[in-house]
Amino acid sequence: MSNLGLLHYFLGLQVEQTDHGIFLHQAKYVNDILERFCMTQERPDSTPLAVNHGISLDCEGEPVDPTYYQAIIGSLMYLTASRPDIMFATCLCARYQVNPNTVHLTAAKRIISYLLHSPNLGIWYSNNEKFDLVAYSDSDYAAYVLEDPIPDQPEEEDVEGMAYWEKYCANLVQVSCLMLETMIPELQKDFEHHGA
Q1: pLDDT for the residue 59
Q2: Segments making up each domain of the chain, as ranges
Q3: How would you classify residue 70: left for phi > 0, otherwise alpha for psi between -120 and 50, otherwise beta?
Q4: How many CB atoms lie within 10 A of CB 130?
């Protein structure tokens, strides 16, 4: 096995290691998305989703090509690995992949134009000895109302006042934290070994 030096790319994630920590981002992939969907010359948006977006299954608009819409959503879903700021908007748009219309496409393209505003955002892991992973949850997704109830929702189970979907999200966060706990020491060892 040969030593290839410091890690720079990992499954599409760009890894920048400094004396102060590790920065994971997907700036190259953001540029690829902008070019793929011809959005490089668009006006950047400062938020990934309008405040009163009104996106629902019943919103009216002309039907659009589902394959094109699904390509946009698939690209954005892959980007959420390093961009939690677009997670809610992307998942909201992903709900309408079967019969998308112009309203849904406009919302998906707004997420892409938001990427123009902030193409270099990512996740920073400080090299400090004290590392606290803090997560916040807006329990009602900014007053967003779901059209359908959550399937298989338990009637009596209450996990310390959290809703069912919060329990599910908490499990996902726990799994992600476990993955990070195993990945960060390896990256730090690699970083210390090569002394960048």
Answers
A1: 77
A2: 21-125, 127-196
A3: alpha
A4: 5
